[in-house]
Amino acid sequence: MTQIKRFVEATRRPGVLGVHSLDHFSLSVPDLAPAQLFYESFGLDARREGNGLALYTAGHPHCWGLLSEGPRKKLHYLSFGAFEDDMPRFRERLAQLNIERVPPPHGFETNGLWFRDHEGTPVEIRVAEKSSPAAKSSFSAVSAPPGVYGTIARSQAPVIRPRRLSHLTLYTSDVLGAVDFYSRVLGLRLSDGSEGNIAFMHGVHGSDHHLIAFARSAGPGMHHCSWDVGAVQDIGLGAMQMANKGFVAGWGMGRHVLGANYFHYVRDPWGSYAEYSADIDYIPVDVDWAAGEHAAEDSFYLWGPVPPEDFIRNYEAEA
Predict the structure, then answer these.
(1) Which of 195, 233, 266, 291 could be bridged to 190 by S-S, CB 3.0 to 4.6 A?
(2) 0.85 exceeded by pTM
(3) For the chain, which residues make up each domain, given as ranges?
(4) Helix, strand or coil, per DSSP, at residue 10
(5) For the segment 222-281, what is each residue's pLDDT rounded down to a tens digit?
(6) For residue 118, how many C-alpha atoms fall within 13 Å in the half-sphere facing its CB?
(7) Which homologous superfamily does the CATH classification assign to the domain defined by 18-129+159-318?
């Protein structure tokens, strides 16, 4: 019991109310079949469950995403995980802020609190185990010594399978409003931002540099879901893996400035992206990260190819 207590203490900030994880996200898409092909090609375990598609990572019991069929691609809802003993305080906070509670989406069983964010997207806070990492994820960059092969034959390349969901980047018409809402209501904290065009937020109980980010657009939507892998080699092999399946549109390889992760984005069938991400910055539970305000030219990417012209085009807002 003492060891369990020490682990819990090490993975939460005492006395501070805030969600600990982005538990999962939900999308509606016009057809689940291409969604299953895309995410399975990406290296996820995409399972048909009920009338939808559930996204898992290999060997991990956690469901990171739920997809259902709808008339068009649309961000359906966000679900955040919280410690059980914090739920009464979240109820009080919602009441104090006069935020209306709403019922869960039809057909969903929940133990959580449902409401809408600053732009009307349904949000849940639910009791869940902490799925955000308790430490910086392992990263490998091994160089071969002299006289030894430095890599493997292409025919022997392994299938790349991401380890976990890293973060989501969402569109919003009001980046500062998103930061205000998600900090006041969910207890997230600003990591870094740039001129009202983008903002990155982390969890107070230890998380990656961002578990959610907001990019300015005409309305809400999902720009990308990001998935953690363990090496730059994995990102390159993942990009090739997707290209071999016909998914060649995207952006990368490169390295971001804010968050510092190496990346490669692959465009999905509806104009959003899935990102292979490695070595993102980590903010421990006992660190007060000094949020920075960065010029646009110093906030996007350190190196990499020029992004596609429509990389930040919100197709959801145009539908």
Answers:
(1) 291
(2) yes
(3) 18-129+159-318
(4) helix
(5) 999 999 999 999 999 999 999 999 999 999 999 999 999 999 999 999 999 999 999 999
(6) 19
(7) 2,3-Dihydroxybiphenyl 1,2-Dioxygenase, domain 1 (3.10.180.10)
